[in-house]
Amino acid sequence: MAQWCQLQMLDCKYLEQVDQLYDDSFPMDIRQYLSRWIESIDWDTVAVQDSLATIRFHDLLAQLDDQHSRFALENNFLQQHNFRKIKRNLQDRFQEDPVTMAMIISRNLKEEQKILACAKEAEEGEGTVSAMVVEKQKLDNKVKELKDKVQFLDQMLKNLEDLQDEYDFKMNTLKNQNELNGMSAKELEREKFNTARMCIELKQNRHDVVSFLNELLNLTQSFIQDLISEELPEWKQRQQIACIGGPPNACVDQLQNWFTAVAEALQQVRQHLNKMLELEQKFTYENDPISQKKAHLENRALELLKSLLSSSLVVERQPCMPTHPQRPLVLKTGVQFTVKLRFLVKLHEFNYQLKVKAVFDKDVTEKKGFRKFNILGTNTKVMNMEESNGSLAAEFRHLQLKEQKLAGNRTNEGPLIVTEELHSLSFESELHLNQSGSPGLHIRLEAMALPLVVISNVCQLPSGWASILWYNMLTTEPKNLKFFLSPPSAKWSQLSEVLSWQFSSVTKRGLNQEQLNMLADKLLGAKAQRNPDGTIPWTKFCKQSANEKAFPFWLWIEGILDLIKRHLLSLWNDGCIMGFISKEREKALLSDKCPGTFLLRFSESSKEGAITFTWIEHDVHDKPIYHSVEPYTKKELTAVSLPDIIRTYKVMAVENIPENPLRFLYPDIPKDKAFGKYYPKPSETQEPMDMDVPENRGYMKTELISVSEVHPSRLQDNMMPMSPDDYKALERYVSPRDIDAVMDLQDLVPQEPDMSCSFEALCDL
Q: Which helix (H) or strand (E) element contains residue 652?
């Protein structure tokens, strides 16, 4: 089994480790779509040979072009855009240094192998990779057994046909007097004896064929039961998890292979039954097993095929607005959404035979206040074979919803608010399959998307997404549209994992245990002691205020997620932000650190998301003093990046020279080492009075810095010495004489040991 397939079947915790391996330098999209090609190359050798690395780099670009062409044939505009961007980025990064790319791929493949090995060691018993892999191997073995038995049945029928033809020839010979004229009585007796023995052998072979066919159908029935009752529901559950940010669910191809293998076997069985009927028409006898069992075997094979096909239509990609790809199942009226279906039985006779129709809120009974919607756009599609993988699929790309306007009172008077009102989207089709000599098939097919939330304003998106999270975290029932009439509570063990997924799905880092501990205390209370079985009601998660603040817990988390995506993504991915930590824990961590050690945490008082930093100093008695700056919101971070704020941050009193108190990022990383790569690159400076440079136009350059102003009496006894860089920057605007005068004045001002910094301001220099 391919390494990439093995990885996708691991538990969630291992998949998150795989996710950490891939970033913009080498995106996971390449690993996913080019997995076979990547694993066919010896990248260790490529990484040490410049010429070979260049060849493989151009081979990779060609592979990307081929995949882009497949997307073009599928009219998959989004992936076309993504792969064009990926190709440009690869060329920018590795065109001159393809060896580095080879080293990255080689390293990632080795790390994947380590993850597989760790997963294998962690398993109990004989240490198999995972229960899912073991189950897959069992099903693969069943497929092989099924194919072998079908092939063996085919050989049995050929032998039976040959034996029956030979018996028929001998019987006709015995009946023809002219053929017997040259035979003696003894030879004639021997010929009759051989023919009688052949008849006994023929009857036994017929009995063996019927028995073997019955055994084959038993195996097929067991296999179908495994697929429909276990594998398909498990795949749908993994899809639910993937929809709410969990590990990607990429096993549909394997499911399709199993379904197709069983369907092909049943089609061959039906052909073999037709062959058996032909043999029966040529020769039959009393208690002929074919005559006795043919109707039963035909009906059984037909019912098994119908059972398989009726479960083969699935929603491969759940409804999603292209504008919000990480928020599936939340649809806005008037905005187009996409959804993709797949028929798991990949047989050419089904190509262009299935016409699928989308139906909204089918079988939903009339309920007061329950909104109704019409589907706009082309709501019927014909399924056809995709060029990329040969799967039978149909993708709806231009559907949108429009609310039906009711006469009279248009307000929602139902028991649920808009973002808790669940809707259904189902897909219907009919399959007609005829086979000469066999009864025709007419099967009604249906697939249903996961329940949807329909919003009318984008501001409802966070609350709508909260409903999707809660539903898919707590139930696997796809039709429970009344779920929020009495929503169950969630265990902290469930919710903590889902919360971590919200971060890992949009960044490269989920939440660590320290961060989850803070959130557990916030939701459960300190007395619960972070009990994994502690329960959180739906109202506390999404409706009630968190810690007596004026907004719910989830909206606070959503604001922080948006802040990270817009302004803090690289810092979060690199682990610079501690983020979720209580003030008490913050002091405990900083208490024994050097003065100037600071950490970054999210504000608990900002609904829109804000970040602050806290640092430690010591008074003259060596007592720790903690200072926190007023949180920075999206507004401030839009003007100045957080690394720049940290680089230029100053504490200033009227009589004192401004200084930057931030020295080490917790635990002991020098500030410039932690954030240096984010600082703006120094530009080539011009002479102040260079008249040949038109850009100057007589203006002095300005720089936004963040300053906390405090009364001099609140400064600590000994000012920290300025770094050479700080002194050089200050010297550009203040003369050395003025600096000395200020320093002399500072020596005359009485100092108080206590210092605090409670607010910040943005200033131009």
A: strand 650-652
Count CA atoms closer than 13 A to 133's CA, side-chain side.
19
Token readout for 512 is: 């660590």
Query: 0.90 cut: is pTM over it?
Result: no
Q: What is the pLDDT of residue 709?
A: 64
Integer Cα distance of 102 and 87 in angstroms: 15
Q: What is the Cα–Cα distance from 291 to 277, expressed in whole angstroms?
A: 8
* Separation CA 684–CA 93 (nearest Å): 25
Task: Give one word for 363, left, alpha or beta, with left for phi > 0 and alpha for psi -120 to 50.
Answer: left
Radius of gyration of the chain (CA): 36
Residue with tokens 């057994």: 145
pLDDT at position 691 over 50: no
Q: Which of 673, 616, 679, 674 is nearest to 645 (CA)?
A: 679
Gap between the terminal Cα atoms of the chain:
63
- Cα–Cα distance measured from residue 79 to residue 27, given in angstroms and rounded to the nearest whole number: 13
CA 520 – CA 582 distance, rounded (Å): 11
Tell me what pLDDT residue 612 has: 92
Q: Are strands 425-435 and 438-448 parallel, antiparallel or unpaired?
A: antiparallel
Q: What residue type is 337 in one-letter code?
A: F
d(CA 701, CA 695) in angstroms, rounded, equals 11
Crossing angle between the packed helical segments 232-243 and 461-474, to the nearest 10 degrees: 150
Length of the chain: 765
The whole-angstrom separation of Cα 587 and Cα 78 is 47
Position 261 scores a pLDDT of 93
* 636 close to 609: Cβ distance less than 8 angstroms: no
Calculate mean pLDDT across residues 187-207: 80
pLDDT of residue 125: 40
Once rounded to an integer, what is the mean pLDDT over residues 58-70?
A: 89
Please write down the HEC assignment for all residues of 439-483: EEEEEEEEEECCCEEEECCHHHHHHHHHHHHHHHHHCCCCCCCCH
Helices (H) and strands (E) in the chain, counts: 26, 22
Confidence of residue 652 (pLDDT cuts 50, 70, 90): confident
- What's the whole-number mean pLDDT along residues 185-206? 79
Q: Where are the alpha helices (DSSP H) in 453-580?
A: 461-474, 492-504, 513-524, 538-542, 553-563, 569-573
Tokens of 306: 């119908």
The pLDDT tens digits for 248-290 are: 776 788 899 999 999 999 989 988 888 888 888 888 888 888 8
Please choose, from the candidates 669, 672, 664, the residue with its C-alpha nearest in 3D space to the C-alpha of residue 726: 672
pLDDT digits (tens, 9 = 90+) for 216-251: 999 999 999 999 998 899 899 989 998 998 887 767
